[in-house]
Amino acid sequence: DLAAAGVTSVRSAADSPAGMRGYITLHNRGELILRTSVTIRINPNMPAAELEKMLKDTPASSGLGDDMLNLWGIKMVADGGSDLAFLRKDYVNRPGFRGQPGGTQENFINACRLCNKYGWRVGIHCVGDAAVDMVLNAYEAANKDDSIVGKRWAIEHGYILHPEQMDRIKQLGLLMHSQTWHLYNLRRNFLQNYGPEYAAMSHPYRELLNRGIPILGGTDWSLEPSDNFKWMWVEITRKTIDGEVVGIDQKLTREESLRFHTIWAAYSTFEENVKGSLEPGKLADLVVISADFLKVPEDDIKEITPLVTMVGGRVVFKKDASIVP
After folding, report:
1. pLDDT tens profile 116-156
2. Is 324 exposed, middle or buried (0-12, 13-18, 19+ CB in 10 A)?
């Protein structure tokens, strides 16, 4: 299904050791048709000694693998989704409620320091601004032990960001893993829960780029379909499911949107020099599409469909058997 959507690489953002074994089995059989970077989910609230033993005894760390299957790092969760995001202020529709944090500040600091100690890159789900605060505090604590700058640790989502948080993100060399469908589908939730001021802060792509912070596109599949051209249309138009245009000053150009889902995304896995663009010497991962993305009318972008998908020069999807790659 993902190959049919024109996807050639995936970053599995919350897997398990059993899931990793499944990927290894497919890889050994030659049946893994999508390049896969696996992120193992851990609970930062587990006893510190138990967590350290697990990380210390695991005979692996970030970067292990090859260009078909590798370990990205560790995933943790600092708050809930749009209805449970951990905020600095009360929800406008629920006085006294500020969301649901995924653990204590102390536990996140300890977990991040241990991950850094044992060579694991970290990405933490954080939606609300208070959750972002908690994650940045933990990352800064790990950074004091051994610099994480250049290791490409990440913020997962980061719906609500303040300028001073972006400054801290820049200083730590963090990546912003962002999924545009949240802007498209969840605009009503943002307004109802957070109010117009916070809702207007969502997905500040232009501001992040202007600050030199890497943004990397994804779909958050399987919560939403891996319909990349639809999400690219949203990035370019800033249109929501209700037809509202939100933060037009934060929109991406067509070229930026294309990079957002290709070579910028490859940067997350330290693979921007081997994939993400069509250049001599790079992996032959490519997609033939139904229309010229750069030239079709803006609202036709969301109608573009993949016709052929190739991974390493191997055809893994054909929409029509008569199509010759």
Report:
1. 999 999 999 999 999 999 999 999 999 999 999 999 999 99
2. exposed
Residues 6+ apart with CB under 8 A from 183: 202, 203, 234, 238, 240, 246
Instruction: Determine the length of the chain.
Output: 325
The pair of three-digit structure tokens given for residue 136, joined into one six-digit string: 């940045």
**Single pTM value for the model:** 0.95
Mean pLDDT across 183-207: 93
Contacts of residue 144, defined as CB under 8 A and 6 or more positions apart, other chains included, come to: none
Model pLDDT for residues 202-234, shown as the tens digit of each residue: 999 999 999 999 999 988 887 777 889 999 999
Structure tokens at 154: 């990440």
What is the separation, in whole angstroms, between the first and last Cα of the chain? 19
- CA torsion through residues 120, 123, 124, 130, sign: positive
Cis peptide before 322 (omega within 30 of 0): no
Write out the H or E segment, with its range, that includes residue 286.
strand 286-289
CA 285 – CA 313 distance, rounded (Å): 6
Phi, psi of 71 (to 5 degrees): -95, 120
Q: Cβ of 255: how many Cβ atoms within 10 Å?
A: 10
Q: How far is CA 268 from CA 63, 101, 251, 314, in A?
A: 11, 26, 21, 24
Beta bridge mates, 309 = 287, 317
Secondary element (H or E) of residue 258: helix 254-260
